[in-house]
Amino acid sequence: MMSEELINKVINKIRVIAPKIDIDDEQIKEYIELYSDFVSEKYFGKFYEKALAFFIAHYITLDNIANNENGALDSSIIAGKVISEKEGDLSRTYAQNNIENESILNKTYYGIRYLDLQKMCKPLGIMRKKP
Fold this sequence. Notes:
Layout: H1 4-17, H2 25-35, H3 41-44, H4 48-66, E1 82-86, E2 91-94, H5 109-121
Antiparallel strand pairs: 1-2
């Protein structure tokens, strides 16, 4: 279980990185409770609070998209990147999502920042000298 102090630090970081998120602290606490298991404190180390804040802001943003007038049918949540558009007779072509390269985390600014932190914390391979 996460301490109240840590929860409040994450909420404060969310308020700084995502000022347009307009939900109260109690709702953010519910998101933290729901999604905190997906972010490893051991992996992110000193960046854990920041990673959790970006991750939570990402899912709050996705929920806002899903709850707009198009609801969960909004293709922007699941579609790949737009690779071509045509204006006359409207046409839009999306790249196919490659699960390895296209994560739902790429769908929001906050998800992309989370992935950046993840890359930054990724352990580098161990190099050995040849004898």
